[in-house]
Amino acid sequence: MAVLDIRFTRNQRKRLHRYVVFAILASLFIGLALFLMGLFVSLSISTKLQLQERNLFELVFYTLMLYGLYVFFHNLMGMKLCYNYFHYAEGPWMNLRLFVWTSVGLLVVLVGCFMASKSFSTADYLTVQLRATLLEGMKKYFTDISWKRRIDRIQVNMQCCGIDSSDDWHKTYWLQREFLVVDSPDILRYAKLDGSVTPPVVPWSCCRIDVKGPCFHDPLQLPNPEQNSSYESLNPRGCLAPMKIMLNGTLHSAAVMIAFLFVLQVTVGVLSRFDFTAARNAVALGDRWSGSPGWLFGRLDFGLARGPNLCQIDRVSGAKDREDEIRKIRLGRRKLEFEQAFFFTTSLIPHNFSLARLGNL
């Protein structure tokens, strides 16, 4: 007994095949987008910072890249398989190949849904790691030349300063005592009990590039440090904000894409079964491109030989189609007869006859 037996006409088969191709193409582009998103974030963040948990960043975004790459090639194989079964449905192991392809695709999408469910907590954890890493780089700004270059590059390219704002530099011990005149009264006022000094000085890379004028990133060099316009010449936002936007945007968008990919994979699995069985049954009936019945599971699938044969199913489906056509013709005739009777009746009513006169009668 066939499950969901539907008879498709020739045009309906072509339309069904186009739907399958479009769904596979959409899945293919989603896989490519996931790969490019993971690659972009890996190049933008994890390669520019010596992350304490770099292995975690690599695990998250390399996994996203590999997942997107596999989805891309899986659906690329699906395009080839879709072409083969539509034109050569009688090919060897065609039914088994389609079943394996759809099963593997559904399994991979389920794994992707599990990954998507963890994306929100992962984004929060990676944000915490980014904050700790930026703080470490700020502390080593003058002691490690590689960190200095990275921090300057990030602050210039992203037009940011500090972690949340430029005040983070004022709270961080990044200017060692050997770089300062410790006996100066302006320096002593910022000294702490542990011997660290945190003056209101920021690196040059915090300066805004759109300000026409000097950048007062070191107000201690001004005649009156208390009255300066240093904040007007510095980048107002911190560097964590654009990184967080990029990180959350990537992981949250990936979760939405994977959810949509799940819907597409289920749709492709169902439609491809109808498409393949209709193509195979058309070959068995003697005309590859004619209308034929299709189903999700039935006779000729994995050795199933019980139930009505293909000719009987086709006759029953054909009889149903003919009954539907006869019913439509009868409804059309009744509608035409009603319209003709209506126009004939209205033609007998005089033109000067009104509803008001009808009411008087």
Structural descriptors:
63% helix, elongated, mainly alpha, Tetraspanin_EC2_sf, transmembrane helix, 10 helices, membrane, 361 residues, 3 domains, Cd81 Antigen, Extracellular Domain, Chain: A, transmembrane, two-stranded antiparallel ribbon, Tetraspanin/Peripherin
Describe this structure in words.
With 361 residues, the chain is mainly α. It contains ten helices and two strands, in the order E-H-H-H-H-H-H-H-H-E-H-H. It has three domains: 183 residues, no CATH class; 103 residues, Orthogonal Bundle (Cd81 Antigen, Extracellular Domain, Chain: A), CATH 1.10.1450; 25 residues. A two-stranded antiparallel sheet has the order 1-2. Helix 2 runs antiparallel to helix 3, helix 2 packs parallel to helix 8 and helix 3 packs antiparallel against helix 8. The chain starts with 5 loop residues before the first strand and ends with a helix. The C terminus is likely disordered.
